[in-house]
Amino acid sequence: AQSVTQPDIHITVSEGASLELRCNYSYGATPYLFWYVQSPGQGLQLLLKYFSGDTLVQGIKGFEAEFKRSQSSFNLRKPSVHWSDAAEYFCAVGILTGGGNKLTFGTGTQLKVEL
Amino acid sequence: DGGITQSPKYLFRKEGQNVTLSCEQNLNHDAMYWYRQDPGQGLRLIYYSQIVNDFQKGDIAEGYSVSREKKESFPLTVTSAQKNPTAFYLCASKVREGYNEQFFGPGTRLTVL
Question: Which of A7, A62, B31, B94 has minimal CB crowding within 10 Å?
Fold first, then answer.
């Protein structure tokens, strides 16, 4: 069965520092990968997605992610974190089932930004 | 503006009562989804629907029911059989074909007293 692992439950970085959030997936076929961000008490917003092609994908708010098939990873990065980036981040893998397409989510990484 | 609306934002119910959460979208999406979110557990899929009058159980469907009578609407009923219903519930939608992203509503926080 497919699964997504986000090994870091909480991460704290200083404003202006670089950020990397880890995501590892397990899926037998070609993965379709997503990163979402959630502010407290809100819905999820898509940051970026990978379907095929260039393994380095750019997203909104200055985020990027790199797909590494050999490591089954899709880590999210940002060169310089802003205080407004404090939120919870979810990695997800899209799968195709008999009932249609669905997403499997990781358990999330809570990002705290120190000023 | 196109989007997904969920109402109400906060919902309180007494134990043993059924409650229905609303989800409406005007994105013309065929597929709709319901997730439950608990701290430290990410999002877990309750039910999903790829087309009107059809829906599938997700990973944690027990104690929940849905209907899909209209393309725009996918209400979720939390029944008294759900043992721990207090949670944050998120609705999402997407175009049916392909692996396009899901768009999420703002969520409903249900508290059962």
Answer: A7
Percent of chain B scoring above 70 in pLDDT: 99
Enumerate the H helices of A29-100 as residue ranges.
Answer: none
Inter-chain touch A44–B41, beta carbons under 8 Å: no
Q: What is the pLDDT of residue A19?
A: 98
Confidence of residue B96 (pLDDT cuts 50, 70, 90): confident
Inspect the interface and report whether the beta carbons of A100 and B102 lie closer than 8 Å: no
Q: Closest CB to B105: pick one of A41, A43, A90.
A: A43
Report how far residue A71's alpha carbon sits from residue A81's, in angstroms, rounded to the nearest whole number.
25
Inter-residue contact A44 to B104 (CB < 8 Å):
yes
Do the Cβ atoms of B5 and B24 come closer than 8 Å?
yes
Instruction: Give the pLDDT of residue A99.
Output: 64
